[in-house]
Amino acid sequence: MKRSADRPRRRARTLWSVSIAAVIVVAVGFAVFAAREDTFPTDGHSNIPFDTTNPAEVARRSDSVFVGRVIEERSTIRRAVSKTDDRKLPETQYDVEVVHLIKGELAGRVVVNAVFLGGPHFEDDAGALQLGREYLFATKVDGPWQTASRPYRRVPITSPEHRAQLVHAYTTATASQVASAP
Which of 84, 103, 99 is nearest to 174 (CA)? Predict the structure, then answer.
């Protein structure tokens, strides 16, 4: 008789142990994912981390990829990080001349919205675009402009050779996307 009375206790302990183990697995998984997210940040438009050093990944997640020359700074606005986070991100709009189109349907001058993600209070503008300088832009359409929300989406071109390397890498990456499309 005593054996049958112990069964519910054993089952309860087993259930409790399994529950604790599940919580530990979830916590460890979250910690691993959080570490991976630092290595592979999101693109600002989805929460799926990816390798920002891979031109194919960046191009695939962009509406347009192009080399552009910064012509003029238009304005700076500050938008809330999210509906639940009242910190403001500085966003500066620039007139950019499309010099070499790799992906998309842009031509002439476009407005590029550059979001600066600096410091704990989002006040670091060290990433401001320089007038007259060329950049490789990988943008997403965001209302009336092309948004380059992260530093890997606006790569400063340092030399003609660097420009040729970037154009080749992103042209090849974009062409492989078209070739593998169904």
Answer: 103
DSSP 113-180: EEE---TTTS---TTPPPTT-EEEEEEEEETTEEEE-SGGGEEEP-SHHHHHHHHHHHHHHHHHHHHH
**What's the whole-model pTM score?**
0.65
Q: Which of 66, 74, 80 is nearest to 93 (CA)?
A: 74
Token digits of residue 38: 């630092």
Instruction: Give every CB contact of residue 12 below 8 A, 6+ residues apart in sequence.
Output: none
HSE on the CB side for 28, CA within 13 Å? 6
Q: Which amino acid is at 148?
A: A
Q: For residues 59 and 101, what is the distance between their CA atoms, to the nearest angstrom?
A: 12
Per-residue pLDDT tens, the chain, 182 aa: give them: 555 666 767 777 777 776 776 667 655 555 544 443 333 344 444 455 667 778 888 888 889 999 999 999 888 777 666 666 666 777 788 999 999 999 999 999 999 988 765 444 334 445 678 899 999 999 888 888 888 867 677 888 999 999 999 999 999 988 876 544 44
